[in-house]
Model the fold of this input.
Amino acid sequence: MVKNQEKSLDINDEYEQRKRKLKALKEQHIDPYPAKTGRNTTLADFLADFKKLLEAKKKLVLAGRIYSLRLQGGSCFLHFQDASGTLQAFIRKDELGEKEYQIFKDNVDQGDFVEFSGIPFLTKTEEPTILVSKFKILSKALLPLPDKYYGLKDSDLRFRKRYLDLLVNPEIKKTFALRSKIISLSREYFDSHGYFEVDTPVLQAVASGATAKPFVTHHNTLDIDLYLRVAPELYLKRLIIGGYDKVYEIARCFRNEGIDHQHNPEFTQIEAYEAYQDYNDYMKFVENFIEWLVKKVNNGQTKIKNGADILDFKAPYPRLDYKELLEKELKVDLEKTSDKDFMAIAKKAGLRVDDSWGRGKLLDELYKKFVRPKMIQPVFLINHPLEISPLAKKIAGRENYAERFQLVVKTAEICNAFSELNDPLDQAERFKEQKKLREAGDEEAQGADDDFVEALKHGMPPTAGLGIGIDRLVMLFGDIENIKEVILFPAMRPKE
Done:
């Protein structure tokens, strides 16, 4: 506790010192936060062209944030950075002028953004440098940066203050470069396969399209409650009804659920729908897409190291039946086992069972407990119970199961897909069942969207749909265990 207090006092003292410097600059009629800079090249370009610039003694204007300062009487060496790289600057009193040098010496700190005008200069140690003839403060930093040597190791602090994390742990930018590449490549793949990218409402009158507890808000003008979407599904299917054959959205979704290493209440997924396809067609589509994507981010290779495992994404992937797997693990016949017996099995397994759970929820929690932890290599889990698949078509001849699949890799569900239910009367009945579950206390049961049922009554062709989690793809391909590492600003409990 004492150490933390001392650290707080040090920061407060530093803050006051920098405020005094800020005041001094203003008293000298120097704007510490100008709107414009005369920068005419980046540090990376300066370094790339250094030999030519050195020969030509060309004067350039560079800008960036100071990371280190070494004052030596009438001169100063420092390093500064922009987004493209790092460069050394050399400042001399006789080059800058006594008055300007004193302003620099008295008022510039590590963390400040500065503009340097000067010519290329090679030090005795042959380090490319800019010899500064003029400087300008671009932004006075009032708080210091974390220590560059010790870095920012505390994960809680890193996630709360991502801007500092990016500054002192620049290697994490690789994760977000991977994320950006996955999104860009995904868009390229769907576009090249004839899909039309769309945007659908984030604020929705009915929370449906996925089994999840929604966030609720209130619209003052309309005087109605609205929900942050748990999925864009029902709007995308409205577009299929409206005449599109292939649509997709890279969608921000929100689910008011627990937070753990695989779950964040705000996440990103690709949802796509294609008319005249079923879940078998989409299994082929997904495995081809995933194999292509892995090759693109992994130098043409289909194998990726993840923890202690080598994951091979070469298609095709095994298809494993939900019922058969669960029966094998539980050593029961699902059709002959009562809900009461499943409840007893779940409690014995240590699951925190809620009385509001229906049969489907029980089966799914038992699957997550006994089956999913053993799934490491890419595999399609197929033919889910109908109770947990209220938007999917029934399997002909297996009325209690749905034409649905999930791609599971390293115990995580990466993709969820099914043959879409296009029977409006059946859909209405499924919504009624969901409503009963919600009234019984299941906060994750889907809302009944009567407008969507009406849309279905106008006719929707046989259609397959899928959702692929972007965050989990980044975790998988980047060998990352915590979802907070792949989201720039993850949800965190506020500190008092």
About this structure: The longest helix spans residues 2-27.
